[in-house]
Write a structure and sequence with these properties.
Oligomer: single chain
Structural class: mainly alpha
Number of helices: 6
Order of helices and strands: HHHHHH
Helix content: over 70%
Number of strands: 0
Mean pLDDT: 82
Radius of gyration: 22 Å
Strand content: under 5%
């Protein structure tokens, strides 16, 4: 291995370390967003149920759903993109002359081959749908059942399509996570 190849390999390893640190931070953020969402829901539902006539505060739940759900989806997408980039780009740079049968960063693909992964990803998508747009929709149904002021009801009507869009993004992100990284890197016709 000459100096240029060795330098490229070292640069790729440094990039790998930086990307994996970002990926781990995003995983922590993503996972904590689920807990933060549940805590926010509990606080709003407690406020709404503690006093009669305060069901209008439920209109805040879809806003929480949208902000935290969108952040969750964005982090989930970036986590997947980093893994694909490591597998498809950096692995080739690092493994210029690998030992027979060895692959650099094999974990980036190996963990995707485990039994039950597809079922696990499907269940996770269902949990994400329930936690984010589902929580917002449940709050709106509760609000509508109890009635409310015209401005609150008008705002709730605007929140429904926004929650539907969030649900679509959750499903799209789950679907994209199952696609090979090379396919994710190529825009689909509807994305161009």
């Amino acid at each position: 291995m000459d100096g240029v190849e060795s330098g490229d390999r070292l640069a790729a390893m440094a990039e790998y370390g930086t990307l994996k640190a970002e990926q781990l931070a995003r995983i922590g953020t993503r996972d904590n967003l689920l807990y933060a969402t549940l805590a926010a829901y509990a606080a709003v539902f407690a406020a709404a149920s503690s006093a009669a006539g305060r069901s209008g505060v439920l209109v805040a739940v879809p806003l929480v759903s949208l902000v935290l759900g969108w952040t969750y989806v964005t982090n989930d997408r970036k986590i997947t993109e980093i893994g694909g980039y490591v597998k498809d780009h950096l692995a080739g740079q690092v493994s210029a002359n690998p030992p027979r049968g060895a692959r650099a960063f094999a974990w980036e693909t190996r963990h995707r081959d485990t039994a039950g992964r597809r079922r696990s990803k499907t269940v996770q998508a269902a949990v994400d749908l329930l936690a984010f747009p589902g929580g917002g929709l449940a709050a709106l149904v509760t609000l509508w059942a109890h009635g409310g002021d015209a401005p609150v009801l008008a705002l709730s009507a605007v929140e429904v399509p926004a929650l539907a869009l969030l649900g679509w993004e959750v499903l799209r992100t789950a679907r994209d996570a199952r696609r090979p990284a090379r396919e994710r890197a190529t825009p689909r016709p509807e994305e161009t």
